[in-house]
Design goal:
Elements: H1 3-13, H2 18-25, H3 29-36, H4 44-53, H5 58-62, E1 78-82, E2 87-91, E3 102-108, E4 113-117, E5 123-130, E6 132-137, E7 140-145, E8 149-153, E9 158-161, E10 168-174
Antiparallel strand pairs: 1-2, 2-3, 3-10, 4-9, 5-8, 5-10, 6-7, 6-9
Helix pairs in contact: 2-3
């Protein structure tokens, strides 16, 4: 691990010059330059002081970046066919409950609905892909056709329903795991 390079990257992310970092740590600009170029190794006390000024902890500094999965192929997605109950669930990102957002593609057959959701502080985004979906939010009803979007704070009892004779498909993205 190139400690000097990591310190330089943190310093530039904080928009500090070598001189500013030196002033805040009671070190010389030349010594900061030597640390960043791997020509000097700071003492433990100096190193911890640098990390404090740069706003990080030793554990975060030494933590290796995890390889982030970007692409989720069709084969890795999960589908739950509950069509006898009136719906099909497709989870494009199967471990999404570990993330900030949780996407779901919901298909509702004619005159079917999908569970009552308890109030939460989650933001909810619903995009109607096919048909017309009804959102019952508290005591209000909203109707979205293909191409329409719904976005709301899920702080009231709510439910999705298909009140038509055609199949409906929506993409739902929530900021908390409660689907």
């Amino acid at each position: 691990m190139d400690i000097g390079k990591k310190i330089r990257n943190l310093r530039t992310m904080k928009k500090l010059t070598q001189e500013e970092l030196a002033e805040r740590t009671d070190l010389s600009k030349g010594y900061i330059s030597q640390i960043e170029s791997q020509h000097a190794s700071p003492s433990m006390e100096t190193f911890l002081n640098l990390l404090e000024v740069l706003g990080t902890s030793p554990s975060d500094f030494f933590k290796e970046p995890s390889s982030e999965k970007i692409l989720y192929k069709k084969e890795s997605q999960a589908t739950y066919d509950e069509y006898d109950k009136g719906y099909i669930l497709n989870w494009p990102v199967t471990q999404s409950n570990e993330f900030e957002m949780e996407p779901l593609i919901l298909t509702l057959k004619a005159h079917a609905s999908y569970k009552h959701f308890e109030p939460s502080e989650s933001d909810t985004f619903i995009y109607c892909l096919k048909g017309e979906v009804a959102l019952l939010l508290g005591d209000k009803h909203y109707y979205a056709e293909a191409g329409d979007a719904l976005y709301f704070k899920a702080n009231q009892l709510h439910r999705l329903a298909n009140q038509t004779t055609s199949e409906v498909q929506v993409m739902i993205v929530v900021t908390a795991s409660y689907l």
